[in-house]
Amino acid sequence: MSSRVLASLDVEVALEVLDRRAGWAQVRLGGLKGWVRIGTDSLADRVPEGEILRFADEARLALALEVLGSEEPIEAGRFDLYTDVEDDARRRSYVDVASQIGDAFVARFGVDPDPRGAGAVVVYSREADYRRFETLTRAGVDLRSQGHTWPGQAVLFVSDLPPADVIAVLVHELCHLLLRGVSPTVLPPWMEEGLANDLAFSRVDDSGRLVLGSLGGRRIVFQHPMFRVGLRSVDREVRLQGAVASLSLLRESWLADRAPSLKELTSLDAQEFFHPDDRLLHYDESSFLVRFLLDERSDRFRRFLSFVAAGGDPSAVNLLDYLDSDWTTTGRAFERWLVFHPALP
Fold it and tell me: Which of 27, 37, 259, 312 has its CA 20 to 30 A from that of 56?
């Protein structure tokens, strides 16, 4: 029997023990749950069903900083921020966002993460350094990723990405760190990614503050001169980017029956959710399911989040109990919300 190794235990770490079987302990740390070998039992013992969890936070951070070429942290609220970005305005924007994200998280979701959900964030100026770190740590499941998190650590890159896109990735990854300090259990993929993206999809105002409940992104208008029978006119083309584009694509997919039902979405395991062919659609649908629940079922959904933060099972069955609804009814309401969303014509 084989199990996937999540990380290597190179430093002494206190782990919460959930179960013990024949020389193995099931443990939990942040958002991870798995098995580690204990004692001196025979190596012939079979690994219990599940994943082996070995944690090495300090070693990973040391490697990330070695690739970065700097070990000077900048205090940013609940986080220590490390970056080789030289532009003062951009660096300040990252610090401002990281400093406010904890309070924004509490205000938006109604739960306050345990301080252990914070940690370090490393922002590489060059994509090549980010890819090198991914390769060295085998963290890059998909080289198209712009950032990822590990218990106590988030990494991302700037490169030539638009400033608003970098901020969105930063918010998303910091939310993952905070979520590890909210739930003692591993959240289902739709919930983990949906909550992180809800804040990441928010607009940032001129003062650098996240506008909770807003929808970021851009509308770009192109004007093309047209000549018809000697007359000159202008053909206008509007293109959407960012969060508003994600909403538009989701609405199109949902109405064309290409998106999974809410029941299907909330039952996907990690392998199914992150499948390369469907991952982006799953991300978008999860993000706007969370946004819909916060818009239309706010009190009930926040009570569910508080239940999960207290150790409750984050299953879809319990979510429906808190919503006092079923998937058919919730799906119809979600479709109406998509169709009439004010951010789209």
Answer: 312
